[in-house]
Amino acid sequence: MSPARSRLRLAAGLVALGLAAGGAAAEVPHAATVELEFASPSAPVVVDGLALFRVRGVSSYPAEERAAAIAARIGALARDAAVDPATVSVARVDGALRVQAGERFVLSVFEADARLEGADPAELAANHARRVREAIERYRHDRGRAVLGRAALVAAAALAVAALLSFLLLRVGGRLEAALESRYRSRVRALGVQSFEILRADQVWHLLAVAVAFARGLGLLVAWGVALDVALGRFPWTRGLALDLGGLITRPLAVLAASTAAALPDLVFLAVLLLLTRWGLGLLRLFFDAVERGALSISGFEREWAVPTYKLARLGVIALVLVVAYPYIPGSQSPAFKGLSLFLGLLASLGSSSFIANTIAGYSMTYRRAFRVGERVRIGDVYGEVTDVRLQVTHVRTPKNEEIVVPNSLILGSSVVNYSRLAAERGLILHTTVGIGYETPWRQVEAMLLLAAERTPGLMKEPPPFVRQTALGDFAVTYELNVHCDAPQRMEALYTALHRNVLDVFNEYGVAIMTPAYEGDPPEPKLVRREDWYRAPAAPEADPQPSAKPTQ
Asked: Of 65, 66, 89, which is closest to residue 77 (Cα–Cα)?
């Protein structure tokens, strides 16, 4: 260990011993006071809630303990009626400056204390002695009977005024609010822009009532705060509490004002950035609104892409603005803010995987043009009409009037059959199959199928229906009837009508439709006789005239 460091530690030890002794040796030898530069921060000497001056300490004898010991000595002198405040003086003992009352020690003044105040040690000691005399005199004066009596009267008056103001605020204010409500509530109008209602009338009135209640509560808080401050500040025992009570209100306001003043340049920058961002987003919205209306066309860019593209562009602009604004947000560099940001980022990364996947899938489907609202589609096992396409999910209404919510990520990984996209231009082909025995001429079967298609209303005449033979089975030939329609929303009804007409035509011409479990010809053909077509409870209806049977 170096000699300088050894001397430093020795001097600090001497300081601690002197501070703890408090006797004739006072608090330190004068030779060691230079080392108090390395002592702990200062603390105020407080008597009856009022700070007299500040003192320093060392690690083994902190400033708070030293200040409390000095305040206790001053209080003991003030309580001793035999002590004359005029005897408080400054003396130099063993090279140190001491403040004492007669022979009774109060405190020592060191060069470090003088450097703390930026004054000469002798001047500082004289100033401390003067404040000690004033503290002793004030201590005795504030505890006089006449002074305490006047303090009690003032405190009672302050509390009475606060109680009266509270009564007026609660009773008279409540009646005034009731009168205003009965007279003016019906006149409060909703707030809105053109036909868009921002706040309903009852919400506006509720906000006004909340504002009135807040003002009333603030008035009560101020009234009782002032009353307690006056009442407690009049008594020496509670004067410190009164100062702390005022500090509870003024300290946060002072901190808030100081923080606001320090952050004012950053707040101005954020305000300008916010205005520029709003203007930029407004111009962006006008541009894409023009594209959506068709007033502005971009080659290869569909009009229905305008809204999702605007949302993507807006998200990118906001993300960029947040990155730029982050360093200028007040408190963004604090550990708490960084910890909160890290926590939120962790939650987002853990819980948003499906959200992000569905969002990307939603935008991908928009630009793939897989389907639109109102089109009839099949997505995997889901079949129906698209009623809504959102960023996360797609809503499909089935023919059974069931709503199915399909995640967009599932749609992105599945095949999508769109029945409506080409129906208006080329017609959607509906098809049905029948199995007919080899003994029936294929020309007759095709003619009967085409006749059934002709009798079915709602089908397109052009392109004309056509028949294909899809299989030559063991016992029957499989025929496929293909017809065109331009209304995919009526697929189920058209299929039903077509099947009915196929059954009627085959019954008219006495041709049996083979069953899948055919093993041999039955004794009688499996046909429905014409006179049995309308067995109860079926109701007769106008039948088309059967055409002449094809020549076999």
From this structure: 89
Question: What is the reported pTM?
Answer: 0.42
| pLDDT tens digits, 362-414 | 666 666 666 777 788 888 888 888 888 776 778 888 888 888 888 877 777 77
CA distance 475 to 512: 13
Residue 6, classified by CB atoms within 10 Å of its CB into exposed (0-12), middle (13-18) or buried (19+), is exposed
**CB-hemisphere CA count at 13 Å for 433?**
12
**What tokens were used for 355?**
């959200």
If DSSP codes are grouped into helix, strand and coil, which group holds residue 10? helix
Structure tokens belonging to residue 104: 């009774």
**What does the pLDDT look like over 432-467, one tens digit per residue?**
999 988 888 889 889 999 999 999 998 888 889 999
Alpha carbon separation from 457 to 34, 221, 462, 481, 489 (Å, rounded): 113, 82, 13, 16, 15
Can you say whether residue 365 is alpha, beta or left, with left for phi > 0 and alpha for psi between -120 and 50 degrees?
alpha
Alpha helices in 90-194 (DSSP H): 111-117, 121-142, 145-167, 173-184
Cβ burial of 256 (10 Å; 0-12, 13-18, 19+) is exposed
Total length of the chain: 552
DSSP 186: G
DSSP code of 438?
A: T
CB-count exposure of residue 423 (10 Å: 0-12, 13-18, 19+): buried
Name the E strands within 323-367: none
